[in-house]
Amino acid sequence: MRAFQIVWVALFITIAAYTAVVVVNHGPNLFPRFFGDILAMSWAGQFNVDFMSFLVLSALWLAWRHHFSPTGLVLAVLGFFGGGLFLCAYLLVVSLDAGGDPKVLLLGRQRAA
Tell me, what's the pLDDT at 100? Predict the structure, then answer.
């Protein structure tokens, strides 16, 4: 579990730093470019559609792990819009809470029991 936690921290730092540079250089308005590439039917658009499918799967897993409770739905929205940055932080926190048990990490305490 420790190796995963190290990877999540490294990814979090990398994504945060890269995002900061992009926002400084291009501004915070991602959506026109993101959806523009999709509408252009380009390889960048194909990547964006593929990436968005991972965001949807991440959001569904977060909502499911929290039994589609209000908290789970909020986490799902954060997971969808926060992407890897949010998911790395979330996985680090719940992995520490899981006490090294991957079943608890993936399923949540209630389903793991």
Answer: 86
Q: How far apart are CA 92 and CA 86, in angstroms?
A: 10
Residue 68 backbone zone (phi > 0: left; psi -120 to 50: alpha; other: beta): left
Q: 99, exposed or middle or buried, with CB in 10 Å at 0-12, 13-18, 19+?
A: exposed
What is the separation, in whole angstroms, between the first and last Cα of the chain? 19
Q: Write phi, then psi, for 101 (nearest 5 degrees).
A: -90, 110
pTM comes to 0.91
Of 19, 17, 51, nearest to 34 by C-alpha is 51
pLDDT at 1: 87
The two tokens of residue 5 are 């936690």
Instruction: Report CA 55 to chain centroid distance, whole Å.
Output: 6
